[in-house]
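Protein in question quoted for reference:
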Amino acid sequence: MTITITLTTAGTDTGPFNLFSDVDGYTVAFVSGVSKSALVSGYSTSLAPVGTTIVRVKSTGLCSNYIDIILAPSTTTTTTSTCPTYYQLAGCDPADSAFTLIQPTLGAGQQYVLPGSPVKYYTYTGASITSCIAPGTYNASILQTSNIGCP
């Protein structure tokens, strides 16, 4: 776990410093011999044990005082978005085409129908696109049939 410790003040007789974690009850230093100037400048380390919420900064020189520094909680945000797959349909009327979100179960040539008057028939072309924006000819009313080809 990576942390940065910054001391805003440090006494004249302080340093070098050892860093301890609350994870093990401050028993074993995870970093030793850190200079005062490094801590005043902002000391970063990736050696802090995972789960550390408090770091004890303890002077090992003439002065053996320590200060416990509470770490600010870190937040991790993960965003995953998945765009849908649209299946391209060719109209049985050559001037017609459409896209559907209904995955073909019979492969290329599977028949789809758009109920209405007149009823329109389509066949799956074997092509598909994945897009977060629906294609212009997407139609949510199209239904899948268990037939192959145009009627």
User: Anything to note?
Assistant: Helices lie at 36-41.
